[in-house]
Amino acid sequence: MSLLFAHLRIANALRCEASFHPIQEWSETDWMCAIAGEVGEAANKIKKRKRGERIDVDEVADELADAVIYIDLLASRMGFHLEEAVVRKFNEVSRRVGSDMALTVKFQGGTNT
């Protein structure tokens, strides 16, 4: 299974607008608080796992997936594409630490990074 950021953006925006509310209806702060809430829920589950509680890894995965979904919606709200930001930042850090590892992705606009 392979998911492209572009596919997530389209489906995510359409679902949000049709089933919840317009993306622009929430402020950047509202979206960030939703992200923080999901990451906090994931952290709590991981904490419980460390204490020995039986928390299935899928529960953690679900919370992290919720966070990614909200992160994409925040990126949409702010007018940038998460895919481009991830590639740019990954490659910036690789250059800074002297790593040859780089991401190369052809974006819809036809540019490569």
Description:
By secondary structure, the protein is an all-alpha fold. It folds into two domains: 75 residues; 33 residues, no CATH class. Helices cover 68% and strands 0% of the residues. The chain has four helices and no strands. Helix 1 packs across helix 3 and helix 2 packs antiparallel against helix 3. The protein is globular, with a radius of gyration of 17 Å.
Spell out the helices and strands N to C: HHHH
- According to DSSP, the number of beta strands is 0
Proportion of residues in helical segments: 55-70%
Structural domains: how many = 2
Shape: globular
Mean pLDDT score: 94
Total helices: the number is: 4
First-to-last CA distance: 24 Å
Structural class: mainly alpha
Q: How many whole angstroms does the radius of gyration measure?
A: 17 Å
Q: What are the key terms here?
A:
single chain; 113 residues; mainly alpha; 2 domains; 4 helices; 0% strand; globular
In a few lines, what is going on in this structure?
The protein is mainly α and 113 residues long. It has four helices and no strands. The longest helix has 23 residues.
How does the SSE layout of this entry go?
Elements: H1 5-20, H2 28-50, H3 57-78, H4 82-97
Helix pairs in contact: 1-3, 2-3
